[in-house]
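note to self — DONT lose this again. spent like an hour looking for the file last time. sequence + predicted structure for the chain T wanted, 143 res
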Amino acid sequence: MDTVILDVQASVGGEIHYAAGSGKGFFRDADISYIPPKPRVAISVTNVGRRAIVVSKIYGKYKMGEIGRTMFVFNSRYLPKALQPYETVMEVMDDNNFIRDLQDDLVENLYAQDTKGYSWRLSKAAFERLKKTAKVLPEIKRV
């Protein structure tokens, strides 16, 4: 049976470049030994199923009763995107409000949605790791 499965991962950290202006580098999670000067959120979505799928958006839900809104959608550079099996798309965003919401424990979880309306979320362990990493950073100011 052909299956469609997305693996969603996220981290808070910063981009490290090999050479100034090269545009090449990697993303490093924040921790005690590395506090990025400009914290960012990296979210990767991988198609681990056997069929192609079109990822339409990345969004999150707030905990019930915490604030007036129930959900938020990330502005994406690369979505919507058709992912072949085992292909990955990564979005890196500098969203201080989201990082602050993680620090204040206001976010329930993060999700990736396909064009048919199905959603996949971060695993509980991955989301707890994301929150723990966000709390390592100094308090972020809202914009």
